[in-house]
Amino acid sequence: MKVKTILVSQPEPKIENSPYFDLQETLKVKIDFRPFIHVEGVTAKEIRQQKIDLENYSAIILTSRNSVDHFFRIAEEMRFKVPDTMKYFCQSEAVAYYLQKYVVYRKRKIYVGKRTFKELSPLIKKYKDEKFLLPTTDKVKPEVPETLDELGVNWRQATFYRTVISDLSDLANVYYDILVFFSPSGIESLFHNFPDFKQNNTRIAVFGNTTIKAVEEKGLRVDIAAPTPETPSMTMALKKYIEGVNKK
């Protein structure tokens, strides 16, 4: 069956040259964006209840832009002046670049991984005498705490924000040829909003092994998977699939 419509379970990209827009134009398909989950920050009071004192830490591990936003939000709410000596360990260049929203980049000690958390770990190990704080969501990938424990560093995790299921009730009678998911939370949201969801002819595209597992556990069929050596990004995987089915 040909593909005409796609729903991506994420916010619409803010950049004009997003590959999704290229995909839409070159393949003449309609792509809608809708976050199936969103984050809500916890209060400074809840941080204190977790027995977190920001003054006790000399290094911050930042795994996403959300962790950057909520660390500095809490610091402001607690009237904590982040010292210039604070070290920042960013999982990727995108996170490090986003950090510039809050700090003068060239004047700070910022260490950047390549993409995955494992790739950041040698930098963390190099500074094993620091006291690390990991500001995260309430749903953390297991590899993050596991890696830090393996490194044997002095670290503490704290929930600075929560992943919350979005209300999708307005989509009840809307049909898409492809649904695109990036996390198990997105699948959880789908079934929370639509407990009787049946896949039928809807194609499901997923990114990452944990998301594939979540789809299969719900008895659904994975039609498009990324990353693979041939299609390292979701847009590349979508393009390959759509070109294959639309030319038939």
Layout of strands and helices, then pairs:
Layout lengths: L4 E4 L10 H9 L2 E4 L3 E5 L2 H6 L9 E4 L2 H13 L9 E4 L2 H7 L9 E4 L4 H10 L4 E7 L5 H9 L2 E12 L12 E4 L2 H10 L9 E5 L1 H9 L6 E3 L7 H13 L2
Parallel strand pairs: 1-2, 1-9, 4-5, 4-7, 5-6, 7-8, 9-10, 10-11
Antiparallel strand pairs: 3-8
Give an overview of the whole structure:
The protein has 248 residues and is α/β, with parallel strands linked by helices. Helix content is 35%, strand content 23%. It has helices at residues 19-27, 44-49, 65-77, 93-99, 117-126, 143-151, 184-193, 209-217, 234-246; strands at residues 5-8, 30-33, 37-41, 59-62, 87-90, 109-112, 131-137, 154-165, 178-181, 203-207, 224-226. The strands form 2 sheets. It has a 6-stranded mixed beta sheet with strand order 3-8-7-4-5-6. A 5-stranded parallel beta sheet has the order 2-1-9-10-11, with helices on both faces. Helix 1 (19-27) runs parallel beside helix 9 (234-246) and helix 5 runs parallel beside helix 6. It is elongated, with a radius of gyration of 20 Å. It starts with a strand and ends with a helix.
